[in-house]
Write a structure and sequence with these properties.
The protein is mostly helical. The radius of gyration is 17 Å and the shape is elongated. It contains 5 helices and no strands.
Length: 174
């Protein structure tokens, strides 16, 4: 049985994950609007991943006998300056998410909640990738310089990203 404090903290994280999806949909819209179809695809996949993260937390709370209470989702930013800007904001956002996941892990340890600790390990590992991906793209975009030559090639590479739902089962994503 999950504690009330842990349930409330995970409920907050569900909203944060849904906000992440909402933010990435906003970034997809920007990219599509400015003609970066591949970048739009990358952000669509990112949004879908965030929805699966929210769902994993959702199912976990219910499986542990807790109640999911959804809060309001804040309006995401929609005013972006460039491809570099959206990926820099993505990295900054993922660092916030990493901090939130780490706080949940600390709470699980304090509560001696081994089940939540085990579940959160998946997210801790996932956040390594969530920060590494935009970091790599930022490095590539910075190599382009001010004139933006090569942006088309990077955009084409980003278009290759596809959503692959995580495997289901114990200690895995939904």
């Amino acid at each position: 049985m999950i504690s009330k404090k842990m349930t409330e903290a995970i409920n907050d994280q569900i909203v944060a994950e849904l906000y992440s999806a909402y933010l990435y949909l906003s970034m997809e819209s920007y990219a599509k609007f400015v003609g970066l179809k591949g970048t739009a695809t990358w952000f669509r996949v990112q949004a879908m991943e965030e929805f699966t993260h929210a769902d994993k937390f959702f199912k976990y709370v219910l499986d542990q006998g807790g109640r999911v209470v959804l809060g309001a989702i804040a309006k995401p930013d929609s005013d972006f300056k460039s491809a570099l800007d959206v990926f820099e904001r993505t990295l900054a956002h993922e660092k916030i998410v990493t901090s939130r996941i780490n706080k949940l892990a600390t709470l699980a340890q304090k509560e001696n909640d081994h089940a939540s600790s085990a579940m959160l390990q998946w997210f801790i590992t996932e956040q390594i990738e969530e920060e590494a991906n935009p970091s790599e793209i930022i490095q590539q975009l910075k190599l382009l310089g001010k004139d933006g030559s090569g942006l088309f090639m990077i955009d084409q590479q980003l278009a290759a990203r596809v959503f692959v739902p995580p495997a289901t089962g114990t200690n895995t994503a939904p």
